[in-house]
Design goal:
Order of helices and strands: EEHHEHHEHHEHHEEEEHHEE
Helix content: 25-40%
Strand content: 5-15%
Radius of gyration: 19 Å
Number of domains: 1
Shape: globular
Number of helices: 10
Structural class: alpha/beta
Length: 278
Amino acid sequence: MTQQEGYSSDALQEGNLHHPSWPERWSHPEFTGPLRDLRKRWCEQPWYKHNTRRSVRFIKWLSCLPWGFVIYRTVYTAESDRLWSSCLAKIDRYVHWSIGNFYEKRYPDSDPFPEKFVQETYKNLVFADRERWEGASLEQIRADFKQYSESLGMEDGSHIPWSQACLVIDESCLNSIVSAFEDPEESANWGGPQRGFVIEKGGYIMLKPFVVMVDPTFEPGESYDTPGYQGYMRVELDDIWEAAVQLCLSTVQEMCPNVTPADMIPVYDGGSGYLVNV
């Protein structure tokens, strides 16, 4: 069975995303009907008027639940097999922390429902098939992801963030994630003279943890407004949530730092970003 043949033809019904690889169909006690019905109930709540609140804006923009990213695993070694589950768990922990952190700082006396709901409805779809994806190029992944989006009727890019971008975990990503701080707050508070570059931790050299984000709309040879744009960027682990929010209004290209010189790698950090050469 190919990856595309594994897709469910009824994957999107009433705004509910399902994939056969999930043990059971996703559900949530709030999600008892179409999203438009949920919004009718929510708009009567005081928190719904907090338009500067990331979780509230995100809830208003969502077109299906659960929300998350398609993640492609491209590293398959004995060591990566041992570390894979803890890597995925750490990604989830960082995303959950990021969602709650903004609420705790800005809205500590408000109803925490929006953040709790966004945390509970976050669910990634992981493609981990050694025969298909070991050492796969970003071009191969981009082509597959475009086919995936089309198979679900998401080709117009309106299903955010599912159809806007996918994530890739290669060996560099895996190493950065498993060696990162266990506490997301420690990672977020680390600055350093050159943010994002190597630092010492317990005698080891490490980068801020990251994943690779791939733009499915990128066409090699086309002209882009972002200098040096190559259709991908790294995303710091504690900014995956921020990237998901920004994808509601922006494209990957618009979020990507200018890639000059061309041999550097762009890194999204929730702001203007930076470049690395490792």
